[in-house]
Structure formats: structure tokens, C-alpha cells
Amino acid sequence: MSLRWNRSVRLRIEVHSVMATLRQGWPRPSTVARAHEWVEPSSEISAHPGFTEMAPQLLPVAQIEAVFETLKQTGALRGASLSVEISDALVLLDVIDGDFLGNTDRQLDAIAAACAAELLGDPAGEQEIRWQLQSDDRHLLMCAMPRTYVQELSRIAQTYGLKLASVEPDFVRQWNRHSQVLGTGQGIFAVATRAHVAVAWATKGVISALSAGPLGPPSSAENPHGVFQDSLAPLVEEERVERVEQLASKIDSMMSEFGLITRPASLDEQASAPQELNRPVSALDRRVDRLLAGLGQDASTQTAFVLVTSDPTRLAISERWQVHRGVKKIHAVATP
Questions:
Q1: I want to staple 311 with a disulfide (CB 3.0 to 4.6 A). Which of 226, 233, 306, 307 is the partner?
Q2: For residue 199, what are the domain limits?
Q3: Distance from CA of residue 101 to its chain's centroid?
Q4: For the chain, what percentages of helix, strand and coil (3-state, to nearest 5) are there?
């Protein structure tokens, strides 16, 4: 029997969409229900994407409540743990360089607040600012998001009887999952969607520099619904992987009945073959090369280029990247 405290909800907030997944069970939870809602471009949250206008964002409250209403029809939410992922396009990420050895938490609070004020101006006073002092005591990783995000998410969680466990930018979540791939050398770690990327240069597990911004013009100029499809990619990909795994299990079972023990490469392996990712120099590579050049670093001396993305087929990705989708590695190509 699966208890209510074994239920969890993952909420992902993008510029143009909101997605939620209800899972249940332990130690291997299964998906009970999924829901998504579009955030129309005409709404206020899309009128000022990210911090490009130096203006605070409004959380898409109506869409968040709508996905919870959908989940509630399928399974009970009360008592479930809620983890929130926020698109990097909707937060401010930066790395502050200095000698922080011996600084108190209050002093680091003030340093992070001063940095946000310098970057954002007046809206900085309306931001929830979080920081993490890295192991070298010289680099402070800072994140700022509108304080209304946390306030509204807390209110909505209370309304549906959920326990708000975490609110994380996508970059932070993926760094915690995949940063060990960089090893002890120096390299690039990037988290990207088709429209936005956050790129970090790290040495021995310490982020020393970070660059975040758009990868190109909005896809809606070519396809009015393209940006919605991009935002839905994590949800679609999760469903696809589950279907592939179910189909692979059935194939194995059928072949076993005929005394066969081998089968061709799985659909997931075929879909993620390296040749799908061999494309010309991209906006992603140009941003990375500019970051390295500004640091006086040579791309050829980097030990790894790690990219986390929900849908690599929508990005132009060169062979130097090790690409990860969620918690699953897609392929690795040796750095030239």
C-alpha cells in the first residue's frame, strides 16, 4: 500500500507554459497524472520575458491552479511534497568573485543583495535572493527571483494541502544532478532549451563564471505555436521515455518466449544517436566561445563540455558536447 506521504508533485514553470506531474510510491515512484497549461504571449508574464526589461515578473497563478485542479481529479494531492522548477529565463543567475573566507552569512547576504541591486536597479528590492558560497571561498553563486514567486507558490501549496519542499532554477537543479561529470578538470556546463541557455565555466567543481541569455529570436516568428511546443518538451519527453521502456520490456518478453536473448538497439538509443546531433556552429557554441575568450581560456584545453537539455533535436549541437537528457546520458564525444 502506498501512503500519501509517498506522493510528490513536480511543477515546472516556463515563460510560456506550466507543467505538473503527480507521482506516487517508494522507492520507485510511478506517474499517476500529468497536466499542462499554456501561458499566452499576450499575458503579463510573457510581455517581459526574464529580466531583459529589468522588470519583475508575475507568476502565472491561474495556469498553476489549473494544472493542480487537473491533477486533483486523478489523485489526491493533500499531503504530497511539492518541488518547483523555474526556467532560467525567469530568474537572474550570477557568480560573484572575491575573497569570502571568514565572511558571516549576514555579510554574504549583503554582498549578494548589492550585486542584485547593481544588475537590476530598483526591482532588486522586490527579489528573493539566494546564494551559495562555493568550496574555494572565492566564488559566490547568486540567484534572484521575484519575491512574489515564493509567496504565491506558498499560498497555492497551502490551498491544495501540498508541502512546498523546494523552489529551484533549472540550472541549479541540473548542476546538482550532473556536475560530477566535469570531474576535477576545468570545463563548460550548460543547461539549455531551444530559446535560452545558462552556461557556466567550472574548475574542480567550482563555478567561476556564468553567462545566461537567449539563444536566438523567439520561434513564434516562424511558428506561432513553436514556443509552446518547446516549453512542453520536458513533459513530452518524459512520456516518450516511459512508452519506450514499456515497449522494450514487451519486446524482450516476446523474444524470450521464442528463445531469443538479443534484440536491436532500443528506440531510445536510435532516437539519440550521435549523428542526429552533428550540426554546424550554433548560437550555443558562439556564446560558450565568447565566455571562454573573455576569461582568457582556450576551448581546446577544456576537459569537458556538458550540456543538459530536454530535447536535443531542437538545438544545433556540435560534437564536442556530452549531452544529457534529464538523468539519462545521451552520448559522449571526445573533445577535439
A1: 233
A2: 4-244+269-331
A3: 30
A4: 40, 30, 30
